Each structure stands twice: as C-alpha cells, then as structure tokens.
Amino acid sequence: MRAFGRQEQTADEDVRALFGQSTAVFAKFTGPAHVVETANAAFQATFGENGQGLGTLLDEVYRTGEPRTDRDVRVVLGSGPHEREVSFDLTCEPRRGATGEVHGVRVIGVETTQVKHAQRLMAEHRALLEQIARQAPLAEVLDGMARCIEELAPVELYVSVLLADPDGLHLRHGAAPSLPAFYNEAIDGIATGEGVGSCGTAAHRREPVIVTDIATDPFWDDFRDLAGRAGLGSCWSTPILARDGSLLGTFAMYHPAARAPRDNDFALIRVFAGTAALAIERHHNEVARQAAEARAESARAALAAAVRAERELRAEAERRADAAAELTTRMQAAAAAQAGAPHPELCQLGGQAGCTAAAELKVADSWGDSAWGCPAHVEEVLIHVRSVFIAGEELGGLAAYLNR
Predict the structure, then answer these.
(1) In a domain, 8, yes or no
(2) CB 43 within 8 A of CB 53
(3) Which of 88, 125, 127, 372 could disulfide-link 109, Cβ–Cβ 3.0 to 4.6 Å?
(4) Burial class for 373, CB neighbours closer than 10 Å (0-12, 13-18, 19+)
(5) What is the pTM (predicted TM-score) of this model?
(6) Closest by alpha carbon to 273, among 115, 146, 114, 150?
(7) Are 247 and 168 in contact (CB under 8 A)?
(8) Distance, CA of 158 to CA of 147 (rounded, Å)
(9) Helix, strand, or coil here: 48?
(10) Do 171 and 228 have their domain in common?
(11) Position 81 in a domain
(12) Cα separation of 55 and 75, whole Å?
C-alpha cells in the first residue's frame, strides 16, 4: 500500500508539474493615454512598463466603460533564438471616479500557455492509452507518441525510443520520426554500457542520464561528430523499465541546442516513459501469447499426426495378420496335397489364383506342415508367417534360395 501511495503521489506531482504554476499579471492604467499607475513584476516582464500590445483592448474598455475578457491573448516574448510565444486570459475593467466617470482601466490576467500545452498533451496521452488497450501495433503507438510530444511541446525537440534486445545488451530502433535517417541507422543496435552516449549509459545504469551539452560531454566522445551532423545539442535519456525492473528500452528527448531540463520536462519524461513501458510490455505479452498459441497448435498437430500414424500402423498390422493367416491356409492346403505328390512341378503357394511358376523351394513350419513354391511366394511366406523355414533334403532348398 505504501508503494502504491508513493506511485500515486509521484503521478500527482507529475500532473502538477505539467500544468505548471500560472503567472498572474496585474496593472492599473490612468487616463486615455493609459499611463501605468501600478503593475506587478510579472506584468512588466511580459507587457513592458507601458502595456505593449494592449492598446486596442484598453481603448475599447476606456471608451465603452464595459468590462471585457479576452482569452488566449498571444504575446511574443524575447527575440531571435530566445523568442517564444505565450498566451494569457485577460480581464479588463473600467476604473470609475466618485461620479461614475471612467478615469482608467484595471487589467488582471493569468498565463495559460503551459496549461494549454499540458491539456493537449494529456488528451493525446489518453488517446495513446486507448491505442494500447485495443492492442494497436507497437510501432504505431511509439511513433504516434513521439510525434504528439514533438508537435505539442512549447520548444523544439525530437523524441526517440530505443527497444532493448532480450539480453539487454543492445538497443534497437523503436521510433524517432524527426531524427535524420542516417542518425537512426547509426545508433540502431548500440551497446548498453557506461559512457555509450546518453541512451546506452541510461540503459546500463537503469537511471536517467541528462546530457545538457553534447559538444562537451565525455559520454558523447564516440558520437559527437554524428550528433553534430544531425544538429543535436542535448540529449536527456530515461530507461524504460518493466514492472519487474527488467530493461525494455530507453526514452530520449533531443534538443537542437544545449539545454537543461526543468521540472515540467522531468514530469513529461516520466509520464511518457511510463506510457512507453506499458505499450512495450503489452507488446511483449502479446508476442509471448501468440508464441504459446503457436506451440500449442504445433503440439496439437503433432499429436494428430501421431494418432493418424498409429491408426495406419494398426491397419497395416491387421493387413499383415490377414495375409499371414491366408498364407498359413495355403501352406496347410499344400501340405495336404503333397501327400500324394512329394515334389510337385508347379508352385503350391499361389492360393486360389494359382501360380504357374516352377516349384523350386520347400518351406516348413514348426508343426510339420510343408509346401513347395516359387521363390517369390516362398519369400512372401517367410516374411509374413512365423516359425517358417526353408526345408529340403540335404539343404538343397536352402542352398537354392541363397544362391538364386
């Protein structure tokens, strides 16, 4: 129960980290020129000291005297490579004097950027869980997971999933839709071990490995040129583990520039690494189930073949018994006929159909019955009738049989 409680607590913390701490902004403006009377630090950091980008909204509220709420107001922060777009829900209210005239505007807002991203990510996460539940192909689930993270993350990143070989000594390509093909081919089959990039080391250690700068980290000595050609600056890798602790693979997030993770990044990694573990383990279970069914079907087929063979052998034995009985009858009939003709000219073992071949060999059984026959019919008797041997004066019959 304690372990379950800790897992539940970690999951709650991950969700809180994904949705983040919303930034609240507040400011008071005076007069039609919207002079800032007071503003908190978050407002100044976002909109500047003069409320940049809010002029049209402030003008309308000041002119109409009616409050207004705008959702998903987009604001661009920073410039160049550090430029990013954020969104706010803003409420603007008129400020009135003692006589009711509008003399300014009050602005209250909450940043919704991270919440919007997290909501979309969690919706995609639910869709992935539904895919896993209906046993969609593993490659489809992993590829879809990678693409949704890349498309919805607030910064540019590339997701990679590597799958562990059964022996846990090598990692194979699982999904990496946005990494160059030459890069995926080069790392397909890399060994797990200390210092083998971020993923090989994470798989070996069974713990996350955060490389914030590929250009300087010793783990990437053997792969630095490859990463440079692929335009990769950082790589954070997390082992994907089964419920019993065995290695299933690695989940990695690459960025085009050197970058250190924040709390919401770690939460995102844990959530989707767990999803990948669920998908991979479900896939392994399904493969094992299919293999067991195939073995069972093979065993059933082998048993059916054995039963058929046993029936055929039994039928053959019955045919041989019938043939032996018939040949015995022939010998007994020939023995009775031999009393009148000790050495007949023609074979006596041809049965009702008769035989026109010369009687060359004499056979006898343990009960004293004997008959003359041609070599072919004598050989048939020797094979099918027990206790039968070639008989003859001075072994003449046996010699003729051996020297034919």
Answers:
(1) no
(2) no
(3) 88
(4) buried
(5) 0.56
(6) 146
(7) yes
(8) 9
(9) coil
(10) yes
(11) yes
(12) 13
